[in-house]
Write a structure and sequence with these properties.
alpha+beta, Porin, 12-stranded antiparallel sheet, 5 helices, 12 strands, 36% strand, globular
Length: 293
């Protein structure tokens, strides 16, 4: 049986249809969901861009807009525009298409390595991964409380281990600080090029981030009255990064209002090096009643 990490890596190995045209798929077990996970679409879009970039140039920033929900039942076509190949920077634009319409567009910039001045903010002081239970362990403890129709989705093996510093109780959420911190890494070592580590980080960066804005209101994504979705997503890669080593994702939500929330995150190595920064605006509103036919 293929493990969850191998399944994710296979998703990122896009099928080339033409020189700058690629096709990506969604796992079969996701077909019944209402939309494709945003992190998957970003990761596949970045993988498509990387297939057109000269080796040795790594992504230092990407900016993506989610335009329409992705349909898990059909493949996603990724069209790459080679915007510029410069002396030290390469720029790409990627459009993800389903049913003849854009579901995401993304701009990404790639850079050769350069030596320069260096400074960073310190990593927050938090509990270490060994002191915390993983999300999978916590789910196992309360799986009997889950509705039967949701149990398979919650307990399915995941490609990443997540250990939250101060998680929300999904059955009885209480208001908490918007500061939202989680350790993560892939469930096994991965021997892949640096570009693929970036794609793995792009995938996991969409987990937990929007949840930062729910915490002050005592909300959890399982609330049936809540409607959430990622609207845009940006990542800056500062240093070499390894998705199979413990990384601290320190997130917060400085502002929510007008049906939207702003969320940001900093990703640190265990040794305290800041390796990536993330920002996202998300939809956060009460579920609207369906219109009558």
């Amino acid at each position: 049986m293929t493990d969850a990490v191998s399944e994710l890596l296979n998703l990122l190995e896009l099928e080339r249809l033409e020189v700058d045209l690629f096709r990506g798929f969604t796992p079969e077990h996701e077909v019944g969901r209402p939309r494709v996970f945003g992190g998957q679409v970003i990761a596949q879009a970045l993988a498509a861009a990387y297939r057109t970039v000269e080796e040795g140039r790594l992504c230092h920033s990407l900016h993506a807009y989610f335009i329409r929900p992705g349909d898990p039942k059909i493949p996603i076509v990724f069209e790459v525009d080679r915007s510029r190949d410069g002396g030290s920077f390469t720029t790409r634009r990627v459009v993800a298409i389903q049913h003849g319409q854009q579901i995401l567009n993304m701009s990404a910039s790639f850079h050769i390595h350069e030596e320069s001045w260096d400074h960073q903010h310190d990593m927050p002081e938090v509990k270490q991964p060994e002191e915390l239970k993983s999300r999978a362990e916590l789910i196992e403890a309360f799986k009997d409380k889950l509705p039967e129709e949701q149990r398979e989705q919650w307990t399915r093996p995941q490609p990443f281990i997540l250990k939250e510093i101060s998680g929300m109780n999904p059955f009885d959420p209480k208001p908490k600080s918007d500061v939202n911190q989680v350790w993560f890494k892939t469930t096994r070592e991965v021997d892949v090029p640096p570009a693929m580590h970036h794609c793995l980080i792009a995938y996991v960066s969409d987990m937990n981030l929007l949840g930062s804005s729910l915490r002050p209101h005592g909300l959890h994504w399982t609330n049936p009255e809540l409607m959430t979705a990622s609207l845009d997503h940006a990542i800056w890669f500062h240093e070499p990064i390894h998705a199979d080593e413990w990384l601290l994702y320190s997130m917060d939500s400085p502002k929510a209002g007008s049906g939207r929330s702003f969320n940001r995150g900093a990703i640190f190595t265990r040794e305290g090096k800041l390796v990536a920064s993330v920002a996202q605006e998300g939809l956060m509103r009460k579920m609207r009643p369906r219109k009558k036919d």
